[in-house]
Each structure stands twice: as structure tokens, then as C-alpha cells.
Design brief:
This protein is 7% helix and 55% strand. The chain has 327 residues and is mainly β. A 12-stranded antiparallel beta barrel has the order 1-2-3-4-5-8-9-10-11-12-13-14. A two-stranded antiparallel ribbon has the order 6-7. The chain is flat, with a radius of gyration of 25 Å. The relative contact order is 0.12.
Length: 327
């Protein structure tokens, strides 16, 4: 029995996906029948012996890495006074691509948690008094599983599911009251997204590009932090659950230059059928420069446009020195 929460188009897409898999598997089994007998007796070469082709090693996207990075600043200036800050960030990333029988699996996991300690004699709330000196920066856990079925076409059909939630509490400064307001905590909110469509992959010796587009379903649940679920059209009711259907586009690029420079970029777009003129955009870019053994620079640029959070486009840019360990 199909749950009521599953939309009709997603059930039909799963049905057609299953039919395509069965038909293609049957065709492969039929194609492995008896082959034509080889002629007996010695065979004379028809021409000069050819050199064996040289194999080109393609890019291996599998990544298992952790890094701990930090940045520090100290200043004493007449214009803005004394300032001292220390930022630290811990991140882990897993990307595993494997191909068991009949299908291809892509597993992705990202974990990032960072904090900044600032001591400038004031909390930043406009009162000039001392306040919370430690603020949470990076605060994200993301897991995704993609199942592809190679049909021999330029694009492959896929089904995918993902989960995203904060790791711990995070606060923001309210523009009106200038006070710290909690925006997120563990599992509050949590966003689950699943979809189906077609995937295109381009692999080169130095990098890889994955792009997929299809129909998606986004489900957001919250308990106290209801900014992503509450509907402004119902001011007397606070919603803690929200479902949205729309068009889903995802792209991922990975590039490595020797063993010193590596780049990973993810672009995710989601537009609801209710209003396709407004899209949620998330673009994450991370570039790592190995300086000496496990010591390196981490350059991170994130761009987010989500009107559920704010009407303004959010931007984060950091350059940190840290330890990068790949397994």
C-alpha cells in the first residue's frame, strides 16, 4: 500500500523506473545467449601486429577526508579599538561511488562544525556590555544516497534521497531588538528531500562532473525553530511541518591537480510548482591547497539564496590554515 504522503507523480516515476530496469536486464540476459562458433585451425594474421592501446587512468571521485582548520587575529586600533578573535572549524567528508550488479550507487556525507571566539569588550547587541563571546559558525550535517541505473544512454535515470539538519544550537542577532535569537538546533529543523529524474556524468583524468534534473519532494519538520515551516499567510497558527513539490537540479564538480590542489563544488536548486519564479539556491565551494604533508590552506566560499530564511542572498567566505587528512 502506497503511503498517502507520496505524490502520484513520484509513484508513477518509480513504476516506470522499475519497468525500465526489468526490460533492460531482460535484454542483457537475452543478449548473452549462444555466440557464433569460432573457426578451428590456425589463423594467419591479416596484417602487422598492432601495439596494445595505452590505458588512461580516469578520475577516482571516492573521497574520505577530515580536516581541522583555524584562523586568528589580534589588533589594536584607534578607529575600532582592541579586537581579538579565534575561529576553528572541524569538517568531515565522505563520497563513495560503487557499481554493484545492475545499478550504480553514490553515497555522500558531509559534517561541518565551527565556532568563533571574539573579545572586543562588547557583545555586539548595541549595549556596549560584555556578552556571549563564542558564536557558532558552520553547523551542518548532510547525507545523500543516489541510485542510478545505466541504460547505455547519454543520461541515466535515478532516484535519490537526502537528509539535512543542524548539528548544534546556533544564534543570530535580531535586527530590531539587537538580541541573540536561536535559529536552529539538532534535528530542529530537519529537511528530507527525495526525487527522481535523469543524471549526466562526465569523467576526465583530472576531474568529474555530475548533473541531474528531475522532480523532487521537500519535507521540512521543526519543533521550536519554525522559520522554515511557518506560513506567513496564517499569522494565528504556527506550522511545524511543510511539504513542497517542484523541480530539482543538482550538480557536483570535483577536480584535482596532482596531489596539491583539490576542488569540490556543489550546486543545488529547487523550485516549487506553486511559484517557479522563486528558487532556493545553495552553492558550496571548497578548495584545498596542500602546503606540506597534511598541512594546508582551506578556501571555502558558500552562497545561499533562500527566501524562507531571508530575502537577502547569504554569503560566506573563509580562508583557514589547518590539517587535511585523506584516507
Amino acid at each position: 500500500m502506497i503511503p498517502v504522503s507520496l505524490p502520484y507523480w513520484f509513484c508513477m516515476a518509480l513504476l516506470f523506473f522499475g519497468i525500465a530496469v526489468c526490460n533492460h536486464a531482460t535484454a542483457q540476459l537475452i543478449g548473452t545467449g549462444a555466440s557464433m562458433p569460432m573457426p578451428s585451425g590456425p589463423m594467419m594474421p591479416s596484417g602487422p601486429p598492432s601495439m596494445p592501446p595505452q590505458s588512461v587512468q580516469m578520475f577516482n571521485p571516492n573521497t574520505y577526508s577530515i580536516n581541522v582548520a583555524f584562523s586568528q587575529g589580534l589588533s589594536s586600533n584607534w578607529g575600532y579599538g582592541d579586537q581579538n578573535y579565534l575561529a576553528i572549524r572541524f569538517a568531515a567528508q565522505i563520497y563513495d561511488q560503487r557499481a554493484p550488479e545492475f545499478v550504480k550507487l553514490r553515497s555522500s556525507l558531509q559534517f561541518a562544525l565551527g565556532a568563533t571566539y571574539s573579545d572586543n569588550g562588547a557583545s555586539g547587541d548595541g549595549t556596549g556590555t560584555s556578552g556571549d563571546a563564542i558564536r557558532v559558525g558552520d553547523n551542518n550535517f548532510f547525507a545523500e544516497e543516489v541510485v542510478l541505473y545505466p541504460l547505455g544512454w547519454m543520461v541515466d535515470p535515478y532516484i535519490a534521497g537526502s537528509l539535512q539538519t543542524p548539528v548544534t544550537e546556533s544564534f543570530a542577532v535580531d535586527y530590531v531588538t539587537k538580541a541573540l535569537v536561536r535559529r536552529a538546533s539538532l534535528w530542529d529543523p530537519v529537511t528530507a528531500q527525495y526525487g527522481t529524474g535523469f543524471n549526466y556524468t562526465l569523467t576526465q583524468p583530472s576531474g568529474m562532473l555530475n548533473m541531474r534534473v528531475g522532480l523532487g519532494r521537500r519535507i521540512t519538520r521543526a519543533h521550536f525553530n519554525t522559520q522554515l515551516t511557518d506560513d506567513w499567510k496564517t499569522p494565528t497558527v504556527v506550522e511545524t511541518y511543510k511539504e513542497e513539490s517542484g523541480v530539482d537540479f543538482n550538480a557536483m564538480a570535483m577536480f584535482r591537480s596532482d596531489s596539491t590542489i583539490s576542488y569540490t563544488g556543489r550546486l543545488a536548486l529547487f523550485g516549487t510548482f506553486e511559484d517557479l519564479s522563486v528558487w532556493t539556491v545553495t552553492w558550496n565551494n571548497t578548495t584545498e591547497f596542500k602546503l606540506w604533508k597534511s598541512l594546508g590552506l582551506i578556501w571555502k566560499v558558500d552562497i545561499i539564496h533562500d527566501i524562507r530564511q531571508t530575502r537577502r542572498t547569504q554569503f560566506m567566505h573563509t580562508i583557514m590554515l589547518g590539517m587535511i587528512q585523506n584516507f
